[in-house]
Amino acid sequence: MIVYLYVILAVALLAFGFVLQRLYQDRSANGNAAARFSMTSGLFSVVIMLAMNGFAPEFSLYSLINAFLKSFACFAYTILGFRIMMRGKMVLYTLFLMSGGMLLPSVWGWCFLGDLILPRRIIGTAVILISIMISNLKAEKSDLRTVLECICVFFLNGC
User: What pLDDT is stored for residue 152 in this prediction?
Assistant: First the structure.
């Protein structure tokens, strides 16, 4: 039961982050909005993680490299997200962002980590893919640049 509460909280916080990102973008007049938003979010995350660790900054070279790669991916998809949302495609951005974060780790686990391919996991993957297709049936056609940016967001968040 507690797992469901964590999932609901994570989804609510992700949605809240998107709202804050959009509000920040609308209020910021210059092109540095994405950089400032990412830095502010990163600093807030550092404080939260240090608090969770009892303010003991311990890390290894492996964790430092992973943190750098994750930060780079998050910064890149945030920049792409600002570009996509400037064209008014927030729904498309959100779909690719969330589906990349759900599908790629699952497929990676099945292919390389020995995770079991269970019927419910296949059904879940199919539901995600079908929801992406259904939600885009009546959507206006996006230009090739937007589609390519969304595909990049999919892979960056999945990584």
Answer: 92
What pLDDT does residue 112 have?
92
Spatial separation of the C-alpha atoms in residues 112 and 109, rounded to whole Å? 6
Contact call for residues 151 and 99 (beta carbons, < 8 A):
no
Look at the block and give the residue holding tokens 């609901």.
Answer: 8
- Alpha-helix runs per DSSP H in the chain: 2-27, 33-52, 61-86, 90-112, 119-135, 144-158
Phi, psi of 70 (to 5 degrees): -65, -40
Predicted local distance difference test score (pLDDT) of residue 60: 81
Structure tokens at 69: 């790669």
CA distance 53 to 56: 6
Q: Which amino acid is at 126?
A: A
Give residue 49's pLDDT: 75
Please write the tens of the pLDDT for every residue from 20-69.
Answer: 767 766 666 555 666 677 677 777 877 877 787 788 777 788 888 888 88
Work out the angle between the directed axes of helices 2-27 and 90-112 (0-180°, nearest 10). 140
